[in-house]
Amino acid sequence: MSKYKHNGGLTMVEFQTVKAEEVKFGKNNFLEIARKKAVTEEGDNEFISLSRGFYLPDGSKRFKRNIAIPDDPQIREFVSKHIKDM
């Protein structure tokens, strides 16, 4: 569970991975695309997470960079179209 401050108070946020796909590249790097859900007492919010990371010697993952994309059909289409066009 992660925490963040909101309007001066402390709100608990639980991040759940709904689905994830991963591709390895280089010596021990990976890219992960995941659908995640941020769950709070007030409700939940789904988003798409793009993460880059690497594997530690014990095989566990270490994330370096991340970007969250709103779960909006127009934004998902925009991102996928322009990635394909690059």
- How many domains would you count in the coordinates? 1
The SS-based structural class is alpha+beta
- Read across the widest sheet, the strand sequence of neighbours is 1-2-3-4-5
- What is the number of beta strands? 5
What's the overall geometry?
A: flat
Sketch the major β-sheet: 5 strands, antiparallel
Distance between the termini: 36 Å
| Percentage of residues assigned to helices | 10-25%
What would the CATH topology be?
Nuclear Transport Factor 2, Chain: A
Number of helices: 1
CATH architecture: Roll
Q: CATH top level?
A: Alpha Beta
Mean pLDDT metric? 90
Q: What percentage of amino acids are in beta strands?
A: over 45%
Written as H for each helix and E for each strand, in order along the chain, the element string is: EEEEEH
Which blocks of ≥5 consecutive residues have pLDDT under 50? Answer: none
**Rounded radius of gyration (Å):** 15 Å
Brief descriptors of the model:
alpha+beta; Nuclear Transport Factor 2, Chain: A; 5-stranded antiparallel beta sheet; 1 helix; 5 strands; flat
Produce a short descriptive summary.
This protein has 86 residues and is α+β, with helices and mostly antiparallel strands. It is built from one helix and five strands.
Describe the model.
This protein is of the alpha+beta class and 86 residues long. It has one helix at 73-85, and strands spanning 2-6, 9-25, 29-40, 43-55, 61-70. A hairpin with a 3-residue loop joins β2 (9-25) and β3 (29-40). It is flat. The chain starts with a strand and ends with a helix.
